[in-house]
Amino acid sequence: MQQFNLSDYLLILPFIFNTNTMAKILASNHLWLIGILWNNKMSLSAIYESWRIHSHEIIREDIFARKFYRWKKEIKEYYNVEIEFSAGLYHIANQSEIEKSSLKKWLFDTASVYNDLFDSISIKDRILPENVPSGNANLTKIIGAMKDNQVIHFGYKKYSGNTEQTEEYNLHPYCIKLFEKRWYVMGKCPTRKGDKRTFSLDMIQDIDVTSKTFKLPKNFDAEYYYKDFYGIVTGDNDPLTEIKIKVDAKRANYFRALPLHHSQKELLEQDDKGYAYFIYELRPGNDFYQALLHHGPLVEVLAPESARNKMKEMIREMAEKYK
Fold first, then answer.
1. 296-317: pLDDT as tens digits
2. Cα 121–Cα 125–Cα 128 angle in degrees, nearest 5
3. CATH number, position 108
4. d(CA 185, CA 139)
5. What is the pTM of this model?
């Protein structure tokens, strides 16, 4: 089991918590350099040209080289990212090791994409990103609370029919998770029944980081906690199930390129109509079944019978709406 490591969260804190403008700029420069070398090898001259385009700063290459060597040293110290030189090119020597941390990989992948988008500002009207509605202010405060294991207090909006209600919660924030364009925080509510609860950040109001602290369970591992589930809804009573699906040839490559769950495996079964067969080992919930329904008639659940019956029930309820 990979142990939960709070230091992974610290990678994004220079942007969020450091009030020193120069420190924020320095962190931004670090991530820029990591971003352009992520999955890439470049000469110092190429890095210099990329920097001139990115920063619009007019400096000589020898002056930039001094900055580069300083950043390279700091990146090793702060992020444990090793930038090495071989065959005339610089590259990230320990990228495969870094990719074992999902947060580090996500951050550096994002930095790489950001560099590409920032340097393509002239075609900004032709690049259409998706909006993530969760409030950045809530995310900032929760990450800060996680850093020091502080209890957070907030109001949480709930809807019952057309009525909006707000309930108050105290939460020990264990981890945060991004799922389908929304950020969620999972943790323990010490005064509520049940062990752990999950909250959508865009439903949280008036969040307050209290002076109270909590002790994170010693063996808590966020990635391991979610590994048998799809999405953010978890239930320890849901049995671990092997689910087999049949996918139309029109959609099979989609599943191969973007696995629905990390447990996905393709079966080597021959079919004269070009169907592909995949199996998953997980604790299926509504999020998983809805993800399968998203593909409509191009996907069929074959086994077990309980999973087929669940899909039938959901499809029947949908069909009733259109009678």
1. 999 999 999 999 999 999 999 9
2. 100
3. 1.10.10
4. 9
5. 0.70
